[in-house]
Amino acid sequence: MADASEDLSPDDLPAAGTHRSADLRAVREDYSLAGLSEEEAGDDPFALLRRWMDDAIEADLYDPTAMVVSTVGDDGRPSSRMVLCKGFDERGLVFYTNQQSRKGQELGEHPDCALLFPWHPLQRQVRIEGTASVVDAGESDEYFASRPRPSQLGAVASPQSQRVASREALDQRLAALEEQYDGQDVPRPPQWGGYRVAPTYFEFWQGRKGRLHDRVVFEKCDDGSWERYRLAP
Ligand SMILES: Cc1cc2nc3c(=O)[nH]c(=O)nc-3n(C[C@H](O)[C@H](O)[C@H](O)COP(=O)(O)O)c2cc1C
Question: How far, in whole angstroms, is CA 62 from its chain's centroid?
Answer without folding.
Answer: 13
